Amino acid sequence: MEKLYGFALKQGIGAPSVPIVKENERVKRGQLIAKCPSDKLGNHIHSSITGTVKSIDETNILIQADEEQSPEFIELVSDSPLDLIKEAGIIGLGGAGFPTVVKLSHRFDNKGTILINASECEPILSHNIKRTEKNPAEIIRGIEIVMDLTNATDAIIAIKGYHDAAIAALKNVLPEKIQIHELPNIYPVGDERAVVRECLDILLDVDQLPLAADAIVINLETVFRIYQAVDLKKPLIDKDLTVAGKLVDSGAIKTYFDEPLGMKFSAMFDLAGGIGKEYGEIVEGGPFMGKRAGLDDYLHKTTGGLIASEVFWNGPEKLGLLVCACGAHKDRLSEIAESMGSEIAGIEYCKQAIEVKGTLKCTNPGICPGQVQKVMALKKAGAQAVLISNCTDCSNTVMSCAPQLKLPVYHATDGSLRACNLKLVRRMKSTT
C-alpha cells in the first residue's frame, strides 16, 4: 500500500509557494519542493521524506514515500542566521503562521524585549511544555539567536506557573539576560496582546502590534526550529503536536516530537494507538480555536493538535450563539449547532469583540466585564439554550446569569474536553 504525504502550497499567512519539482521526480528529505515568490509574503516548502512526486495540483504536492526512511536531511546552504530562517521556511508555529523572517527583520534601536510565548494556552495541548522539559538548552540557544538578530536587550519566557517541571528545566540553563514570567492559568493568556499585558504591564489597542510596546512575541516551538535552522542547517520539515481524545486508549493525551510534515491525520492517530470507533469530529488545533478536519487531511506547519471529540449531544430545538473574539467564531459555532441538530435562534457578540481587518479582536483578552445583556437578548430571540465560545473569565459571567434565565449552557470546547475527561469551561473558581 502506497504511503502518500501531502504538502500544501499555502501554509500560514501569505501567497502560495510555487512548485519547483515535477511529477515522477525523485526527492530527498529536506529538499526544497516549492518556493515562495520573491516579491510575495509567504514561505518555502521542503519535503519531510524521501520518495517520488506522485502529483502536483494548484494546492498540494503529493509524494509517495520510500519504504525505508532516514533521519538525515539535505542541509540549508545560506550563511547568515536571518537567511537560514528564511530558507528553512520557518513561520509562527503557535498561531496564524506569519513568516518568521519578516518578524525578525526588525532591529530595536534602544531597549527591546523578546517575549517567548510558552503559555500552551489551549487546554489539552501539551507539546510545547514537553519540548521545554526535553530541550531547555536548545530553546535558550534559539532565544539568544533571536535576541542577536533583533538587537533585543531582554527576553522573557512567558509560561503558566503550574508547569513546575518545565520551569525547573529552564532555570537550570537560564542565562542572566533571559527571565521567566509565570502566567495565570486562564484562557486566553497566550494571546499575543495578553502576553504583552502580563509581562510588560502594557495593554495594546486592538490594532496595535507588540512592536508598539518595543516587543516581539514569538512561539516556543518557533524558537526551537530557529535553533535547528541556524545551528543544524535543518529546514522546517518536522512538527511537534498533541494527539488526544476518543482514541482506543480513550481520553489519553499524547505528545509527539519531530513528526514529518505531510503525514495524514489518520497516520498520526494510528501512531497514537488508533482512533476510537465512535467520535464526534476531528478538531485540528486546540478546543477553543481549532477547526473541523478530516482523517485524510495532512499535517502542516501550523498543526499543533489533533483531537477526536466526544460524540455530539443532541441540542435543543433553538440555540442562541454567543461569539467571543478569543474563541470559536460564528461559522464554527454554527457548524457545532448544526451537528447538535439545533436551529440558530439568534447570534450575539461579546461586548469586547471588535472587528479589525475582518477578524474579531478582544479589547482586553481574558478579562471580561459581563455578558448579561447578550444572554438576555438571546433568551428574547427564542433561544432555549446558549452555545458560547467565551474565554474562562467571560464564561464565568455567562454562568452568573444564564442558569437564572433557565438557559442551559454549552461551550464550543465541550466535545474536546469531554473526550479527554477534563473539566468543562463553565464557572471557573480558580486560576491556579
Describe the structure.
With 432 residues, the chain is an alpha/beta fold. The protein has four domains: 4-65, Beta Barrel (OB fold (Dihydrolipoamide Acetyltransferase, E2P)), CATH 2.40.50; 81-231, NADH-ubiquinone oxidoreductase 51kDa subunit (Rossmann fold, 3-Layer(aba) Sandwich); 238-308; 318-419, Rossmann fold (3-Layer(aba) Sandwich), CATH 3.40.50.10700. It contains twelve helices and 22 strands. The chain has helices at residues 81-88, 100-103, 127-134, 136-150, 164-171, 192-200, 220-231, 265-271, 330-339, 372-380, 392-399, 414-419, and strands spanning 4-8, 18-19, 26-27, 32-35, 45-46, 51-56, 60-65, 113-117, 154-160, 178-183, 215-219, 238-245, 253-260, 282-284, 291-293, 305-308, 318-323, 343-349, 353-356, 359-362, 385-388, 409-411. Helix 3 runs parallel beside helix 5 (164-171) and helix 4 (136-150) packs across helix 7. The longest helix has 15 residues, at 136-150. The chain is globular and about 65 Å long.
| Helical residue percent band | 10-25%
Please describe the biggest sheet, giving its number of strands, its sense, and whether it closes into a barrel. 5 strands, mixed
Radius of gyration: 22 Å
Structural class by SSE content: alpha/beta
Number of strands: 22
Our estimate of the beta-strand percent is: 15-25%
Reported by name, the CATH topology of the largest domain is Rossmann fold
Instruction: Give the overall shape, derived from the CA principal axes.
Output: globular
Helix count from the secondary structure assignment: 12
What multimeric state do the chains show?
single chain
CATH architecture of the largest domain: 3-Layer(aba) Sandwich
- Spatial strand order of the main sheet: 13-12-16-14-15
Q: Which regions are unreliable across 5 or more consecutive residues at pLDDT < 50?
A: none
Query: Separation of termini?
Result: 49 Å
Residue-averaged pLDDT, rounded? 95
CATH evolutionary superfamily of the largest domain: NADH-ubiquinone oxidoreductase 51kDa subunit
What is the CATH first-level class name of the largest domain?
A: Alpha Beta
Q: How many domain units? A: 4
